Amino acid sequence: MYNASQDGRLDRLSVARCLDLYGDAFQSSRGNLLIVVEEPEERLSEDDIQFHKDAKAFPQGIPQPFEWICRRETINETHTCEDWLFDFKATPGNWTPFQSAVKECYSQRTDEHCKLKFSNLLCWVVAAVNLLKVALMLLVAFGRGESPLLTVGDAVASFLEHTDETTRASFTHWVMYHFLNLIPIVVSGFLLGRGLSMMTGNKDITNLGLGAVNTKTIMIPAPQGAGNLVVNALIVNTPQAIMSFIYLNYNSLYTNISLVTEWDRFSHHRKGLRVSSPPQGAQRNTYFLQLPYRYSLPIITFSAVIHWLISQSIFLVNLEIYGPPDNDLMNFIPAEYTYQPPDQEVSGASFTACGWSPSGIIAGTVANLCMIAFILASGGRRLRFGSAPVAGSCSAAISAACHPCEAEENAWEEPLQWGVVAAPTDGPGRCAFSSASVGVPSEGQLYA
C-alpha cells in the first residue's frame, strides 16, 4: 500500500463513494483500501483493526465481503450488515468502523479476471438431443405414410372421400387442465414463502432486484466441478421444462377452441376446407402457426414472457474469489473450493450454486395467472351461431357429419356447408356437410 501510494496508484474517494464501491457484495475492480479516520478517542486494539471474517459461514451460505464496514455494529438475524449499509449510504457521516468518523478513503484498482467456462458433458447432451430432434422433424416432414388428420378440414375431407361405415346411422377436461396448471403456481408460492422466511435481515424484496445475484438469495454453494454444474443446471432448468409442457397444455386447449369455432362457422358460411396437405380445388392452407393469430400470438407472447421471468427467478451462479495467498480470508476457505490460478500472485476459490429472485417468482406467477384468466375468458365465450352440435376433435362426431344423401363427386374439394340435406316427413332428417344447398335445422325436429 505504501508503494502504491508513492506511485500514485491509489484513488482518493469520498466517504459516500467509498461505501458505494466497497459495499458491493461482488467486487471485481477494487482491491486494497486505506481508510483515513479522525483522531481516535482511544487506542485501537488488535480486534478493532482486524479484517472481519467468519470461517463457519462459507460452507452453509455466502459471506458478505463488506461485513468489515459494520465491524462495530450489532449484526443479527433481523438486521444484517447489508441493512446497516443502506443506513450508512444515506448518512455517510454516521459510519465509524474504527470508533472514529471516516474522513476519506484511498482505493487501489485491481485487474479484472475474464474466463470462458465450457461444459463438455452438457455440450454433448445438447448436441445429441438437437440431432435427434432434427431427425424426427425430417422423418415427419418427408417420411412416407398415411396423411394425418391435423385439422377439422383434414378430417372432413377424409371422411367425405372415404366414408366411415361405423358412424353411418367436457367440463372435467377443463378442470383437469387448469388443476395441472395451478400446481406449479401453488408450489412456487410455497417455495417463495419458505425462502423469505429463511432469509435473514430486511425482507424488503424491492431491494433485491429482478434476476440480480444477492448473497441473501443464493442457495447452498458447492465446489466447482462437472457433477455440481450438471446438478445445478438441472435445478434451474426444470421450471423451464415444466413451463414448456404447460405451453403444450395451453396449445391443446386453444386447438380445441379453434376447432369448435371453425366447426360452428360451417353451419352458417360456405367455405373451403382448411387442410394441412397441399390444397386442392377450393381447399385452403392451414395457419402459419397452426392456430388463428388471435389465439397463437397471445399464447406465444405469454409463453415467451413467462420463460424469461423464470430465467430471472432461478438461475445458475458461479462465483470466483481472488486474493493474496497469505490473506487470512483465503486461508479460511475450505480446500475443496480453492485452486491456484495461473497468476501466482493471487489465490482463487470458486463455487457453483443456484440463485433465486423473489421479484422474478412473483412476476412469473402473476403472468401465469393472467394467462389462465385469458384462456378462461376466451374459452367461456358463447359460439357465434350454435347451429351445429359441438364435435371438438372427436373423429366419430366429425365422421357422422360426413354422410350426405347422395354421393357428391369430389365434394371435399368444393366449398362446403353443414346443414339439413334431407327432411323426410316420415322419419328423422339428416344433417351433413354438402357442396349443394343445405337447410337450417329446426328446433324440436330429429336429425340423424
Structure description:
This protein is of the alpha+beta class. It has 2 domains: 2-109, no CATH class; 170-379, no CATH class. Helices cover 41% and strands 13% of the residues. The chain is built from 13 helices and 11 strands. Strands 4, 7, 8 and 9 form a 4-stranded antiparallel sheet that branches. A 3-stranded antiparallel sheet has the order 1-3-2. The chain has a two-stranded parallel sheet with strand order 5-6. Helix 8 packs antiparallel against helix 12. The N and C termini lie far apart (96 Å). 22% of the residues are buried. Mean pLDDT is 75; it is low at 51-61. Keywords: Membrane, Transmembrane, Transmembrane helix. The chain crosses the membrane at residues 121-142, 174-193, 293-310, 356-377.
Topology at a glance:
Layout: H1 2-6, E1 10-13, H2 15-22, E2 30-37, H3 46-49, H4 57-60, H5 81-90, E3 102-109, H6 120-142, H7 152-161, H8 171-198, E4 222-223, H9 226-265, E5 274-275, E6 284-285, H10 293-313, E7 314-323, H11 328-331, E8 338-339, E9 347-356, H12 358-379, H13 395-400, E10 417-422, E11 430-434
Parallel strand pairs: 5-6
Antiparallel strand pairs: 1-3, 2-3, 4-9, 7-9, 8-9, 10-11
Number of domains: 2
The radius of gyration is 34 Å
Strand content: 5-15%
Low-pLDDT sequence parts: 51-61
Helix/strand-derived class?
alpha+beta
Mean pLDDT: 75
Number of strands: 11
Cα separation of the termini: 96 Å
Biggest beta sheet summary: 4 strands, antiparallel
Pattern of helices and strands: HEHEHHHEHHHEHEEHEHEEHHEE
- Considering DSSP H and I runs of 4 or more, what fraction of the residues is helical? 40-55%
- The DSSP helix count reads 13
Shape designation: elongated
